[in-house]
Structures are given as C-alpha cells and as structure tokens.
Design a protein that fits this description.
Chain lengths: 320, 72
C-alpha cells in the first residue's frame, strides 16, 4: 500500500521486513533496516494509477522465517540460484539501463537452475518527465546502486511455497507472420519473417506496425512479451531480448487496457498477492492513470521479473 | 519417472501433444525443454532428468500436472 515517509520510517524502525518502491527523494531518507527498494514515482495503487513523489509503496513481508539481503553486479548476478534458500522466494530489483539488467535479461532463460527457485522482481526506473538515474537500495547497508541488482532472499516455512504468475493482456494472431531471430539480442537488424530474410526495421516500417504492441512468443501456452524500444535506421532496439529458436508474432491490438486487465484478471481468478507490479508501457500506452487493477496494486516498473525479464506484463506473487 | 508419464512427456516435448500447466514455472520449463529437444533430439533423457529434479523439489505442483498429463 502507499504510505507516508513517516509511516515507512516507523515500520523500518519497528524491525519489519519490507519491500519498498518510491521516488529516489524518499528512498534516500530511509534509515537502515530489513528492507530493499527501487526507484519509481509511478504506481497503480488501490486508489488507481498515479505519479507521486510524496508516498512510498510498501509491502510488508511477514511470512518469512528468515531473510538475507545482498547485491550483485553483472559478473555474479546468477549466483542468486546458489545463494537462495532451499524453500524460499527470491526478490530481485535491477536498475533500468544497467549492464547487470542486460546480462540478466539475455541469459536468465538459459540458466537451468533458475526455474528451480522462485524469483520475482522488477526493474527500477525514474520520472520520465524529469530524467535522472534508476537506483536500487540495500536497506541493510543503506547503500544505493545504479549498477547492481539488490536481492532479498526469504526463507519460507516448510508448508508454504511461493507461486509466481502473470497477467498478460496481449496475445498473438496465429494468422500473422511468424518472426524468428538469429541470436539472443536486445538490438535487432536481420530476422526471418515466414522464413524469408528481412531487415526488421524495414519490415516494421513497410507494414506500418504499431510498435506500442509487443512481440509475443508462445511459451507453452503462456504468452511472453518483448516490447519495442526504438525503431532506428536499419536497427530495432528492444526492452527485453528476443531469443534464437523462439517464434514471435506481433500482438493483436488492445484498445482499452484497463478493461482488458479486468477481463483477464476475472478469467484467471484473482488471488491474494503479497506483491505485484505492472509495466510503465502499459501505464503510458494504456492511460492507466486513475485506473485500478484490483486486487493487484504495486509499483509501475521499467521491466518485470517472473524468473526471466518480461515486458508489458503484470507480475504477481502469492504465498500459498 | 513412471514409464507412462515419461511417454506422455516425450510427446509433449516433441510438440506432438499440447499441454499447458496452470503453473508459470512448469510452462517455462516445458518451453525451454522443447527448444532443447528441437536443437538436440538426443537430449531427451537429460530433459527428463530436469523434470524429475523439478518434481522432486515441487511434488505438490507436479502431482497436479502429472494427473492431467496422464489423462491426455
């Protein structure tokens, strides 16, 4: 929930274990304690989507038997699969634009051990009207980073487990062209469209594709998005990588994001998440300011992590 | 792994039978193993070992999937 700075400081000083999302001007005032945080001024709260630099979004973690907090750079970020609790949940926050994020994004799906340990999280960001740097905070040390991921490991009771899931309002059109890529990459030049070699930027321009719609890949019935960052001269930059050997199609058009979220949430059956986050691109493209997505409330993020990096997706985690 | 369930997984991983789990991690695992089998058809036993390891860690999740897969 969104709370004041004073309330957040009070919770930290009481020794509560917290996950905190807020503008850097607030996170930088917090005392040391059992918390991790990341920067974003955007939220979809219980009252609706908003930009605020007056409140912090706080999740209290009251189900963990033990916690540990650590931070990792690009050379050791996958140590998380060794450092986690055997029956636990790992929460990771990575700074937007960092090398550790690029490393995690490109390599996570191929780390065999990754799916053996529930890992959820998000990419910290900034006020797009002002600029600045995306940061993550290790509350234990009080340090903030622009080049490291911060991680909280939570040990769960033996009779509990963490269930990570997603709500994706996009799906592909199976009659549309199938697109494949030669490498795992965040920046694309060539690709194959229905088996024919083409330049991806030229293909998008020629077809007049709405690049607010993501590329969608079918992961055994679950649609995973990759969002277009920029279409340049002969090159397309992406917010998450495309992967070799995976078939993609552009998503079918979604006109009313809030209504589509309501429909998908009802179809899936709303759970009782202790944490959720939704993508800044959904917030911006879907005009989610003032809109609610109950029961899901949380930070609006610059990438979402459900094991691997996702785009334009609502991610949530329940303890069951 | 039981021979019946192993046979069903072979069909799923080779893309001959479609099965979607209610669990995100299971779907991501199946998707990754389908990619692995497509690239190297000889990797089936290694894929089954990965499923066994996942099942040993999350027996309650996988039992639900096993029951549904056997009924395919």
């Amino acid at each position: 929930m969104l709370v004041s700075l004073d309330k957040t400081i009070s919770l930290i000083n009481e020794g509560k274990v917290l996950h905190i999302a807020a503008d850097d001007s607030l996170l930088s005032q917090l005392p040391k304690g059992n918390w991790i945080g990341g920067t974003t001024p955007y939220f979809i709260s219980e009252e609706g989507g908003m930009l605020t630099k007056d409140k912090l979004f706080v999740n209290e973690i009251d189900f963990a038997e033990e916690i540990r907090i650590d931070s990792y750079g690009k050379y050791n970020v996958f140590q998380v699969v060794d450092d986690c609790y055997d029956n636990g949940l790992t929460m990771i926050i990575l700074p937007f634009g960092s090398e550790v994020l690029a490393k995690y994004a490109k390599e996570a799906p191929e780390v065999e051990e990754l799916l053996m340990h529930p890992i959820v999280g998000w990419v910290s960001g900034l006020d797009l009207n002002v600029g600045g740097e995306a940061k993550v905070y290790d509350g234990k040390t009080g340090e903030s980073y622009t080049d490291k991921a911060v991680v909280m490991y939570m040990k769960l009771p033996d009779d509990k487990s963490a269930m990570i899931n997603i709500v994706n309002i996009f799906e592909d059109d199976k009659t549309d062209a199938a697109i494949t890529f030669p490498d795992n990459t965040l920046s694309v030049t060539g690709c194959k469209v229905n088996g024919q070699d083409v330049n991806f930027a030229d293909y998008i321009a020629k077809k007049g594709i709405d690049t607010q719609m993501p590329l969608v890949a079918d992961y055994n019935g679950v649609f995973i998005n990759t969002s277009i960052k920029e279409v340049g001269e002969g090159k397309v930059d992406l917010y998450a990588p495309v992967f070799k050997g995976v078939e993609y199609r552009f998503a079918t058009h979604v006109s009313d994001y809030a209504k589509e979220f309501e429909k998908r949430i009802n179809e899936a059956g709303a759970g009782s998440p202790f944490f959720s986050c939704n993508c800044i691109l959904n917030y911006l493209y879907g005009n989610l300011e003032g809109q609610k997505t109950p029961p899901y409330a949380g930070p609006v993020t610059f990438g979402e992590v459900a094991y691997q990096l996702l785009n334009q997706t609502l991610v949530y985690c329940e303890i069951v | 792994m039981d021979a019946n369930i192993k046979g069903k997984f072979k069909q799923i991983l080779e893309g001959k039978v479609k099965y979607t789990s209610g669990n995100l991690a299971v779907n991501m695992l199946i998707s990754r193993l389908q990619k692995k089998i497509a690239a190297d058809p000889g990797s089936f036993d290694a894929c089954i070992q990965e499923i066994d390891a996942f099942a040993a860690k999350y027996p309650s999740i996988v039992q639900t999937d096993y029951a549904k897969i056997l009924a395919l």
